[in-house]
Amino acid sequence: MPYQPPTHSVERSLRATTGAKVVAGVDEVGRGAWAGPVTVCAAVTGLRRPPDGLTDSKLLTPRRRLVLAGELETWVTAYALGDASPLEIDELGMTAALRLAATRALDALPVRPDAVILDGKHDYLGEPWKVRTVIKGDQSCVAVAAASVIAKVRRDAMMAELGTGHADFGFCDNAGYPSPVHRAALAELGPTPYHRLSWSYLDSLPKWQHLKRVRVVPAPRAGASPEAGGQLGFDF
Q: Among residues 86, 91, 87, 103, which one has the least CA distance to residue 31?
């Protein structure tokens, strides 16, 4: 399916309007999975022409994604990854877990970014970062697209490795996302140590419901919006 290649237009805008010199693109993978961490990549690319075929990782075949990730890892100016574990997701909720993983990735960069382009419409990073959210940024922004591909390939490899001791779950194929093989293994064998135990899939597994963790959400401060605590949203 044809698609428009990503550009540096958002990065140029940030440079012009904020004076930012170092701009990082940030994207996540694993938000909707039932098992495994959520992984965030932060990539700094500058304004150079990207490798041919760069786009949102979800639009690429696994083979093309793997080849492109190898090219990107040497092409980008810098990149770093951050994870939030299943336990951290259960304890914090997905919004705060995303913030934790993204902060870990950004802090691991050799140079602190002056601004961040974040894929999507929701700013889960917040202060002190200067954030520009871009819907479908993983298709339209070079740095975000690069982060998307690197994060996807790295997390898929991690899930395949974690799955070596749990072959019935098919992590090497589904990366912890729900699939017929994954669902059948859960029903029969129950969650692995890599599963998120606060998620609603356990509600349909009577045999394993006793394992579900209930996360207590702190009441918002007076006058604060529901987003202020970073504890709500994306928990399904």
A: 86
